[in-house]
From TrEMBL:
It comes from Achromobacter seleniivolatilans. This is Rrf2 family transcriptional regulator. Pfam families: Rrf2. The lineage of its organism: Bacteria, Pseudomonadati, Pseudomonadota, Betaproteobacteria, Burkholderiales. InterPro entries: Tscrpt_reg_Rrf2, WH-like_DNA-bd_sf, WH_DNA-bd_sf. PANTHER family: HTH-TYPE TRANSCRIPTIONAL REGULATOR YWGB-RELATED (PTHR33221:SF15), WINGED HELIX-TURN-HELIX TRANSCRIPTIONAL REGULATOR, RRF2 FAMILY (PTHR33221). SUPFAM superfamilies: Winged helix' DNA-binding domain.
């Protein structure tokens, strides 16, 4: 089963955008995420609706950051993406008359809810600024310059 990597990809793109000296086009961003520019525009539109990014059309236009990295958390980004399902696992049937399945559902549902609450709390404790700080520390440690092409060398 393929994992949903949209959150990871959007965080990746936002950090690159923060390092950019100007707007980045959907084509530029699509290369980072190895996807179609239409997919990027759709994702970025949701972030724009939440006030996290801004777009300008035309020559010299593109996407820019419009939020404060010190206050925006991973949870904010997760919610801006529409709060996608966190777990691929779930109950076989949500409504059942079988008492065995009802017991299984009760145990699993409680565990899933606890795990999701913990994960969302952790997301809420990590800001984009913290990710940026970690990136900069890694860049210094590895002695790399910050360009899209340099960041993506094997």
């Amino acid at each position: 089963m393929r994992r949903d990597s949209k959150l990871s990809g959007v965080l990746h793109v936002l950090l690159h955008m923060a390092e950019s000296t100007g707007p980045m086009t959907s084509e530029d961003l699509s290369k980072l995420m190895q996807t179609n520019p239409v997919v990027i525009r759709r994702i970025m539109a949701g972030l724009r609706d939440q006030g996290l990014v801004h777009s300008e059309k035309g020559h010299g236009g593109g996407w820019t950051i419009s939020c404060d990295f010190n206050t925006v958390t991973l949870r904010d980004i997760y919610e801006a993406l529409g709060s996608p399902e966190i777990f691929a696992m779930g109950n076989r049937s949500e409504s059942t008359e079988c008492l065995v399945e009802a017991s299984v559902n009760a145990a699993l549902t409680g565990a899933f809810e606890d795990a999701e609450a913990l994960l969302l709390a952790r997301f809420g404790g990590v800001t984009l600024a913290a990710l940026s700080t970690d990136f900069h520390a890694r860049r210094v440690k590895h002695g790399r310059v910050c360009t899209v092409s340099a960041a993506h060398k094997a």
